[in-house]
Design goal:
This protein is 34% helix and 21% strand. It has 367 residues and is an alpha/beta fold. It folds into three domains: 62 residues, no CATH class; 53 residues, no CATH class; 174 residues, 3-Layer(aba) Sandwich (Rossmann fold). Strands 3, 6, 7, 8, 9, 10 and 11 form a seven-stranded mixed β-sheet that branches. A two-stranded antiparallel ribbon has the order 1-2. A two-stranded antiparallel sheet has the order 4-5. The mean pLDDT is 80.
Length: 367
Amino acid sequence: MFRIEADRARFREIVRGRIREDLRRYLSTGELIGRAGEHAVSIPLPQIELPRFVFGQNPKGGGKGEGKPGDSADGEVGEGEGAGSAGENPGAHILEVEVELEELAEMLGEELQLPNIQPRGVKELDTDGGRYNRVRNSGPNSLRLFRRTFKNALKRTIASGLYDPLDPRIVPIREDFRYRMKKSSPQPDSSAVVFHMMDVSGSMGREQKEVVRIKAFWIDTWLRSQYKNLDVVYIVHDAVARIVDQHTFFHLRESGGTKISSAYELCLKQIMERYRPEDYNIYPFHYSDGDNWSARDTELCISTLRDEILPRVNQFCYGQVKSAHGSGQFKKDLDGALSAVETLVTTAVNDRADVPEAIRSFLGQGR
């Protein structure tokens, strides 16, 4: 049994090594996203041979003797029959392995050399911590206090005059039983909220949205490993902004103009009403191709960021995705006006190969 467990552990290490080798490729593709569950992700790994038993009949005969390569063990020579023609390429062996998202986040941190985040907002939450330092009259047998129960039964028996020193028999009844009880108390715990904001105007095509989808998956995977309590808010915008669910965020197709300030104003409203900075670590991420409807709205975005959002968040990240119709001007305007602000990080993604470095830029500050 111990030998089997050792072999299984060794094989798991081989699998994890292969995942680490190919992690850069996974960072640039959406291959894992559709296979992700609530706690684990299924990863297809080709060309890993699994040892296995093959059942069949043993050949007749054996030992030493004359023979030629290809002769059967019983001395008969013949040609086998089978369907199809011979080929020179090896067969593909695909193995799907489930990896916990927490372990995947650990691999991501090692690959991109990401520091652990130092939480800022701390919220008082009821946790499972605490001590069993109280007593109650009911509970499961596993928490029964034997000495207290016996003591109560003894006192009741003596008080009722039923105690016989020559036959000191003590029989507890229901009212004698006592049980341990845990005292719960609020414990400080760090909570975080992620705002994913995306431009869904006509200039953002399918490829741009797929890049956003890949980045959002890895960002969430890392932040969930850093915080026990993580809320995710999805905001889409063209000329107006609104909150949507995850599926709508990644599959919505719209056309029309772009007014980026609408998304920033909605994000700020959520921060002020639902996610106070003293309670939450706040991470807004905005994805766009860099087009905005006017320079006037860009000025409003910059002032909203500088005066309202940036002082309240751990970090604001803007990821610009190159498109055939986007000018890319918005990143230039942000960099020109707010380059001295450390909590603002901007990146440009020209294609999927730039995704790993964009993720490193977003998460590599340890904020």
